[in-house]
Each structure stands twice: as C-alpha cells, then as structure tokens.
Amino acid sequence: MTKLETIMGIQEQIAEAITSAFDELGGDPNSAVQAALRHNRVDDWVQQETAKIAVAGGVEMAVPGLHALTIPAGITFLLHKMATISWGIGALKGAYIVETAQYSDLRNILTLWANSSYYTPHVMDYVAIKMDLFAYVCTVEGYQKLEVAIANTDAKDIDNVIVNTLHVLKSLADELAEDERAKLMVNTIAGEDVAHRAIAASEGRLPQQPARIVSTEKSRRISTRLATKLASSIGARVPARFLMGFIPLAGPIVNGFFNAQTLGEMAETAKKYYDHPFTIKQLDDLT
C-alpha cells in the first residue's frame, strides 16, 4: 500500500469515526464539569487540557512507522478532549451544558468551528443557555413566563434560532424531574439550594403542551454534512502528521503541536459560543 493510499484510508476512518461514534466521543458532561470547576479561571482549564493533548500527540507518533495505526485512535481521543474542554468552559462561564439524544452544545460548537470559528447563530440549532435561566424556567413563575414567550414568538416573525432556543428550554425543563444527569449538573454548577428549588418545582408538573422538537437530519446527533466538514478540517493535517511520523524526534513534537493547536482553536470557539447565551433578560423581553 502506498503512502497516499494509507493517508486516504486514514481520512476515511476519521470521517467514519465522526459520523458513527459521535455519541461516544464526548463522554459524560458531568465529569468535565466537575473537573473544570476545580479551576478558578477558564484559561487555567484550557492550559491544563491542551498540555494533556500535546503529550498524547507525542505518544501517538513515538514509534516511527507505526503511527498510521494509532492516528485514528488519536483522532477519536482528540474529539473526546474537544468535548471535554468545551463543556468545562461552559461550566466555568455559568452555562447549562446541553447534551441529550436530541440536543447538543458540542454539535453547535463543532458547527461553529467548522465555520472557521465565526460566531454565527443562524448556523446552530439554538444558542447557549445560562444556568440561572434554566433554573428559573424550571420554577412555576419562570415556566409560565417561558410558555408566554413561546406563544408570543410562535405568533410573530422572530429569529428562528431564538424560537428554537425557547422550545429547547421547555423540553429540558419538562425532562428535569426524570433526568439524573441534568439534576447532577444543576446541583454542581448552580449549587444545592438552586437545584433543590428547580427540581422540586419540576416534579409532578405535567406540561399542558409538549415542546416542539427542534429536529436534526434523521434525528442524528451529528449530520453527515457536518461530519464531512469536520473530517476535512481535521484530516487536512494527516499528510503532515503521516510524513513527520517517520522522523523519530520531529514526529512526536509536530504531532503534539497539531493536537494542542486544534484543541486551542476549539477552546476559542467554545468561549465564543458560551459568551453569547440566552438570558433571563432576553426571556423577559419576549413576554
């Protein structure tokens, strides 16, 4: 098999891994949240995670000539770390981390990253959600206000991503009482008192009207189109990684740099995403 054929095969594996294993790549958001909240600053969290990925990249290329076997696994690990660093940034910025079978902050952030990291709300399913807003809409008062906002926006020509965000909020609030992961996240980020009030208010509440599903392509968590764009962005670095792997010292150094650079770009994108959340004030403005 020629070098070119090997590279093409690796790129296909990258695309397949992104498409078929997206659910498993991110891991548990609560683990990332708890780890991140041990830090006082976002920059400290980012520095720690990029240092880890740089070391992993070096190990991946440590044995010259065998790196072609480890690059696909390295890409999977890289995507896992992209999820971890993003969720941690969200927690440190006071966001509610959305990761369900239907909705995904990670998917939104990856969409922005594939869009050259420009913050463009219209390419996302919804915008980031502040934790205090989520806890508020779980209360009786907040939930009533949310329903009014949904009725108002559905009846008017309102920005679609905002409408979607309201419906996502309602869906998440309706599911809180039965979602152990969500309960743990609210407790970890917002504190026991806030979590207790939100959970107590949501238990036993039967929504008068189910939230509209903000659907994605075939209800998959990541579309084929996005997976292809991500594979292209990540796979563009494969040829250099492949060739450098035959140089005993340069290979690990360059590969570690590539991984750290990619994770750094993802971190900057996550900051932009969580710096533009939907807030209580915006909810008030719609009622």
Describe the structure.
The chain is mainly alpha-helical and 287 residues long. It has one domain (3-285). It is built from 15 helices and two strands. The chain has a two-stranded antiparallel sheet. Helix 1 (3-20) packs antiparallel against helix 12, helix 3 (29-36) packs across helix 5 (67-92) and helix 4 (42-60) packs antiparallel against helix 14. The longest helix is centred in the N-terminal third of the chain and has 26 residues, at 67-92. It is globular.
Number of domains: 1
Structural class: mainly alpha
Q: Which residues sit in consecutive blocks of at least 5 with pLDDT less than 50?
A: 57-69, 239-254
Q: Mind telling me the C-alpha Rg? A: 20 Å
Instruction: Report the sheet-strand fraction.
Output: under 5%
Please summarize what this structure is:
With 287 residues, this protein is mainly alpha-helical. It has helices at residues 3-20, 22-25, 29-36, 42-60, 67-92, 105-114, 131-137, 140-155, 160-175, 180-190, 192-202, 224-235, 238-244, 250-274, 280-285; strands at residues 95-96, 129-130.
